Amino acid sequence: MKNVFYHLILKPTFISVITALFFLYIAFAIIYKLFYPPKIGSAYNMVLEMLLIFSIVPLGLFIIDRLLVIKINNIKLTIIETILFGCIFLYYFMFVNPF
Questions:
Q1: Mind telling me which residue stretches traverse the membrane in this protein (predicted)?
Q2: Which of 5, 10, 36, 48 is spaced 20 to 30 Å from 93 by Cα?
Q3: What is the value of pTM for the model shown?
Q4: Per-residue pLDDT tens for 36-47?
């Protein structure tokens, strides 16, 4: 168990940081919803439920990332992840949805 926390905190990568920020955003949205409930007919509940349902994808990427950080150096893995996601975003903004 100590080994898991060591790799989680002392060896962060791009995906682990982005996933942590995503789940932190969801946690703040849930806490906000508890103190300020949305009005009847608001789409806020549906948006929060969709975020929770589709959080399986970042969680899966996070688990794969943590398994890879044990095998590969975390700096090399961060560079590979950044280049991979940069290429995906570049392709999306240039060809799929150009300005």
A1: 12-32, 44-63, 75-94
A2: 48
A3: 0.75
A4: 887 777 787 788
